[in-house]
Amino acid sequence: MTEVIVVGAGPTGLMLAGELALAGVDVTVLERRTSAGLVGTRARGFHARTIELLDQRGIADRFLAAGQTVQALAFDGTPLPVADLPTRHPYTLALGQSGVEEVLLGWVEELGVPVRRGVEVTGFTQDDGGVDVHVADDAPLRTAYLVGADGGRSVVRRTAGIELVGAEPTRSHLIAEVAVTEEAPPGIRLDEVGIHAVNAVPGAPTVGVVVTEQELRTGAEPSLADLRTALVAAFGTDFGAHDPTWISRFTDAVRQASAYRSGRVLIAGDAAHVHPPTGGQGIGLGVQDAVNLGWKLAQVVRGDSPDALLDTYRAERHPATARVLGNVTVQALLQRGDARTGAVRDTFAELLAFDQPRLALAGLLTGLDIHLDLGDGHPLLGRRVPDLDLVTPRRPDPRLRAPPRRPAAPARARRTRHRHRPLGRPGAPRSRRPA
Ligand SMILES: Cc1cc2nc3c(=O)[nH]c(=O)nc-3n(C[C@H](O)[C@H](O)[C@H](O)COP(=O)(O)OP(=O)(O)OC[C@H]3O[C@@H](n4cnc5c(N)ncnc54)[C@H](O)[C@@H]3O)c2cc1C
């Protein structure tokens, strides 16, 4: 019997598999895609807290080498400079999701994790001793624990009977990469319906478009005809769109799983929270879920900690993610071109010119202000461990430079010029653990 099966070789599943393997757990990843390639662009990079976590595992440099660091954090179009945030990584890493997955895959392969492709999970049954994972066209696989990192339409979440709770969709958007016969001017346009954008890369055979549909549509896979209709309504022309390499639909629904666990089955990443891509938060939330869950699951699998440790995963990640999703909701709401929404947007922009609101919001969106409710105590209790210089007689101490072997014990010693600076509103309530 495998100790842990992870469903999904997306960013969350791969990160979790790496965490478990580092802790010596026997883990297998099941992925229905037959190859590692990703259709469409999807996420475009990471913010600071996620890069810090990758750094604690000794793999941030791989991502930094593959992408580009930029000052790209924004709140609904208002830039939020982050160069003065208290971190060794005060920037956004621009790297497409396929690049992210490639680096993560290389890492988990080095750690010896089997990633079985072309395996579609259809459901599971569990008992006191383990979980039988049902797969299409093959016999069930037995595992001690199952983690669904299988995206927003998660089969694992649905089989577990876990509900998604939150704001229902009011608007839908099409996102596509498509060839055009007319010039499609790049830029962002807001109107009464919503946001429309064209991203033309010089020399590229296709343009990227995002267009808000005139009426809410959900469910069915969008067609080229749907895209053309939406383009004509928004731009007055469909630019002669043809031969799409990718068309997808997303809505402004923001929903979170009511539970993150059902017995021996857990969910993480998009399987546990769905929301529009506004603000570029999704991939980082998934990686942070994986890092929170990984060492705990390893402890429980090895028998080093009681099973109840797994409940702290939901207790910590649900409220932290809910705060981010609240912000995503506000940003999505502001994506309209009417005068009232414009006035709200302008007011936000004026406030964000001041340091304190900018730092508070940047702390939230980068994940640096994470503050878990661990009870009363020192103001730093529940915050991330400040990444401070360690001063030793032999500086730097080579023993502290060694890469950590276990996720629970990251340690580094490096010189830095930044100083610790608390983020978030002074006296702001912390994320509360649910009753
Ligand atoms: C159009 C679009 C644009 C986006 N833009 C951004 C952005 O700019 N910034 C950002 O941070 N995020 C963005 N996101 C969100 C980001 O892509 C997700 O948050 C991220 O991919 C979540 O990773 P995950 O591993 O949890 O899920 P996924 O990436 O969805 O991975 C799930 C994996 O599970 C596999 N799988 C699913 N079901 C099964 C099954 N039954 N059996 C076996 N395998 C299965 C899938 O094939 C997939 O590989 C965007 C998403 C979309 C759709």
Mind explaining what this structure looks like?
It is a single chain. The chain is an alpha+beta fold and 435 residues long. It is 30% helix and 22% strand. The chain is built from 11 helices and 21 strands. The protein has helices at 11-22, 48-56, 60-66, 97-110, 155-159, 224-235, 282-301, 311-333, 339-351, 355-366, 398-401; strands at 2-7, 27-31, 45-46, 68-70, 74-75, 78-79, 92-94, 115-117, 121-127, 130-135, 141-148, 164-167, 172-179, 187-190, 195-200, 207-212, 242-251, 254-257, 261-262, 265-267, 273-274. Strands 1, 2, 8, 9, 10, 11, 19 and 20 form an 8-stranded mixed beta sheet that branches. Strands 14-15-16-13-17 form a 5-stranded antiparallel beta sheet, with helices on one face. Helix 1 packs parallel to helix 4. Flavin-adenine dinucleotide binds at residues 7-13, 30-33, 42-44, 97, 120-121, 149-151, 155, 175, 248, 250, 269-270, 277, 280-284, 286.
Outline the fold blueprint.
Layout: E1 2-7, H1 11-22, E2 27-31, E3 45-46, H2 48-56, H3 60-66, E4 68-70, E5 74-75, E6 78-79, E7 92-94, H4 97-110, E8 115-117, E9 121-127, E10 130-135, E11 141-148, H5 155-159, E12 164-167, E13 172-179, E14 187-190, E15 195-200, E16 207-212, H6 224-235, E17 242-251, E18 254-257, E19 261-262, E20 265-267, E21 273-274, H7 282-301, H8 311-333, H9 339-351, H10 355-366, H11 398-401
Parallel strand pairs: 1-2, 1-11, 2-8, 11-20
Antiparallel strand pairs: 3-7, 4-7, 5-6, 9-10, 10-11, 12-18, 13-16, 13-17, 14-15, 15-16, 18-21, 19-20
Helix pairs in contact: 1-4, 1-7, 7-8
Bound molecules: flavin-adenine dinucleotide.
